[in-house]
Amino acid sequence: MKIGLLGCGTVGGGVLDIVExxxxxxIKYVLVRRPRPELGALAVSDAAVILNDPEVDxxxxxxxxxxxxxxxxxxxxxxxxxxxxxxxxxxxxxxKELIALAKENGAAFRCTPAVGGGIPWLVNLERVARVNxxxxxxxxxxxxxxxxxxxxxxxxxxxxxxxxxxxxxxxAEADPSAxxxxxxxxxxxxxxxxxxxxxxxSEEDVPVAGIRNVKACDIAAAEAHGRVCRILGCGKxxxxxxxxxxxxxxxxxxxxxxAVDKNFNMISFDTEYTGRESFYGQGAGRYPTAYNAVEDxxxxxxxxxxxxxxxxxxxxxxxxxxAHPYYVRxxxxxxxxxxxxxxxxxxxxxxxxxxxKEAHDMAALLLKSDPGFFMAGIKD
Length: 380
Ligand code: HSE
Hints:
Blueprint: E1 2-6, H1 10-20, E2 26-31, E3 43-44, H2 47-51, E4 58-61, H3 69-78, E5 82-85, H4 88-104, E6 109-110, H5 121-131, E7 134-140, H6 143-155, H7 159-168, H8 177-180, H9 183-197, E8 199-200, H10 216-224, E9 227-238, E10 241-252, H11 256-259, E11 264-271, E12 275-282, H12 286-301, E13 313-314, E14 323-324, E15 326-329, H13 335-340, E16 341-345, E17 348-351, E18 354-355, H14 356-369, E19 374-379
Parallel strand pairs: 1-2, 1-4, 2-3, 4-5, 5-6, 8-13, 10-19
Antiparallel strand pairs: 7-9, 7-11, 9-10, 11-12, 14-18, 15-17, 15-19, 16-17
Helix pairs in contact: 1-12, 3-4, 4-9, 5-9, 6-7
Bound molecules: L-homoserine.
């Protein structure tokens, strides 16, 4: 296998190191944006050199972002080259186009490192969904935010300082808003819902609440009630179709989710024949993510051609039947929130059970008058 590596940042550098030790594949080019003398003749700054070279059979894309990643990946697929990508934004946004191009051109399109970093989540989900209907998935799907929340619980760390640390460790996206606002998790949910349920969700339809506004007083409120703050991506097969959403939760202190620390992820599915299975591991970082990209290359070498599923039914998620109480902290006045209030929790309130749809609709309204609004679902 001759690989054109698009990008040589945290993950790309890891791919380079791992491939160097293998005899079944080699990196022929590395696309770089700035001069990188240490890469010697491998470094090219013009993507066309890679995309037009018939010797390159596989492109590994770790640039991130939508453009020019989309243009490069689309061109690679059109040229019949296999593509492996760690770019969940690209996959969630251009799903249909890229999978269609891969099929038309007989190329493989794989993105195992895009969800769960080093966890072999998508490949296992692919396997299980063949035989064992997936009823639900949920989990900690972002290393940066877990690292932040864990540090806030353990050391009372300051949000901005610990975010800077997560960036320095190579966990965060180039624009960390994607992490702290939950968009990175939303994209991982979209990919997961497709492989699990055959559903095609779009970014506009999956509601997201992030942790940008979480404060020490919220962490204290969770702890005072025997809980730990985490942020989860969730998806479920329902009578009406599919529920899907992203939100912080106050998980029970004894739950598996509460025990997940640092940059670790834990994603679970519940299936008809096996019940719960959980996948735990490093969800972000150089070698975990790079390792999963190289695994995809090995799968392609061994003959994998298809995407993880062929099913792509466009579905708009319906979150009206999913309900649980919420912790809400806001300075905004809201009759709806007053009516739902059950208890006072520190500087916030605990609501009666609200549907996820009601809670996220309320959040969208309250954020307009209170940019510091924070909420978390109460889940066991
Ligand atoms: N920024 C992502 C995270 C990288 O923190 O989980 C891995 O997808």
